[in-house]
Structure formats: structure tokens, C-alpha cells
Write a structure and sequence with these properties.
- It catalyses: (6S)-5-formyl-5,6,7,8-tetrahydrofolate + ATP = (6R)-5,10-methenyltetrahydrofolate + ADP + phosphate.
- Its cofactor is Mg(2+).
- The chain is globular.
- The chain is an alpha/beta fold.
- Helix content is 31%, strand content 23%.
- The model has no long low-confidence stretch (mean pLDDT 93).
- Strand 1, helix 4 (64-72) and strand 2 (76-83) form a beta-alpha-beta unit.
- The protein has five helices and eleven strands.
- The chain has a seven-stranded mixed sheet. Strands 4-5 form a two-stranded antiparallel ribbon. The chain has a two-stranded antiparallel sheet with strand order 8-9.
- The chain has a single domain (3-182), classed as Rossmann fold.
């Protein structure tokens, strides 16, 4: 393992610990509300008709209110499924979509309504650690870095300020998130 991989692994562990602390602090909900407010007021959100995002786990910023708001506004909501060779594709969900938990503990939709990358207006990208310049360290699977190679439209991430860290340099294959909505 090279030095950068070791650093990313260390930062990933640090970030997960910070997210757990936030989840247990009793302040997670109010911190999330500040981020949702920024997202919903943004031109990126208001102009997007098709939105891709994951079903967040307990320590991540909850995506349930985002999904509910998007569906209420008549937007199309997509959630990814993972495939062999660390590939991922986005499928439409509705109020009645059922989900299955993968071996990684991630919820994927039971849906066959597929959308190609160019059909998605806004992709809300998860992560654990964020560089202030928009780069991210995710959970380590590389699914989003691969997906973003062929994704032409808007990207953003939802970030607690505790997730910001500039003590690392992105690698050549890391794709920058266009906008970070940071809880202030």
C-alpha cells in the first residue's frame, strides 16, 4: 500500500468516526436542515428535473427528506444499483418502490426503469471526507469515480463541516464535485 492509499484509509476511518459522533450528538437533524435549505434554494436543484442519489445509511446525511421533496415537486428520482466490475446504474424510484439490502448493506431499488448518465440533471454524490476544492474520499469502492467519467451534467455533495479536510491531494483519476453544500 502506498503512502497516499494509507493516508486515504486513515482519513476514511477518521471521517466515519466523525459521522458517528454527529449521528450520536443529538444535533444531526438541525445540521441536516441547514444543508437541505441550501440545496433546495440552489439553481442546481430548482432547474433539475431528474435527480440521482443514494439511500443514505444512518451516519450519513439523510436522503429521505430530499427524495420526499423531489417527488412532491414532481421531479424524477433515481437510485443506483451496483454491478460487476464496480459499475453502477441509476434506476427510477417512486413512493411505492421496494428496496433490497446488498451484501455491502446498501439499499438498492427493485426497479427496471433505467436512466442513462446524460438523462440525469443532478447527481448528489456521497462521501466521507471532502477537500474544500470539491474532491472527495468515498467508502473506497470507486463506483462514483468510474461513473463520473461518462457523466456530463451537474454534481453536488452534502457536507457537514466536520467532513472537510485539506491535508490530502486528489489523485489524477479523482473527479471533482462541482458544488459542496456545507453546513455552516
Amino acid at each position: 500500500m502506498n503512502r497516499l492509499d494509507h493516508l486515504k484509509m486513515k482519513l476514511r476511518r477518521f471521517g466515519i468516526q466523525k459521522l458517528k459522533e454527529i449521528a450520536e450528538s443529538g444535533h444531526k437533524y438541525e445540521k441536516e436542515q441547514k444543508i437541505y435549505s441550501q440545496l433546495f434554494q440552489s439553481a442546481q436543484w430548482q432547474q433539475a428535473q431528474v435527480i440521482g442519489l443514494t439511500i443514505a445509511n444512518k451516519i450519513e446525511i439523510s436522503t429521505k427528506p430530499i427524495i420526499a421533496s423531489a417527488l412532491k415537486q414532481g421531479k424524477t428520482v433515481l437510485v443506483p444499483k451496483t454491478f460487476a466490475d464496480r459499475q453502477m446504474k441509476f434506476f427510477q424510484i417512486t413512493h411505492s418502490t421496494e428496496f433490497k439490502r446488498t451484501n455491502f448493506g446498501i439499499f438498492e431499488p427493485i426497479s427496471e426503469i433505467y436512466f442513462a448518465p446524460e438523462q440525469i440533471d443532478l447527481l448528489i454524490i456521497p462521501g466521507i471526507i471532502y477537500h474544500p476544492k470539491g474532491y472527495r474520499i468515498g467508502f473506497g469502492g470507486g463506483y462514483y469515480d468510474r461513473y463520473l467519467i461518462n457523466y456530463p451534467n451537474q454534481t453536488c455533495s452534502l457536507v457537514f463541516h466536520e467532513q472537510l479536510n485539506n491535508q490530502w491531494q486528489p489523485e489524477i483519476f479523482d473527479k471533482k464535485v462541482q458544488r459542496l453544500f456545507i453546513e455552516q
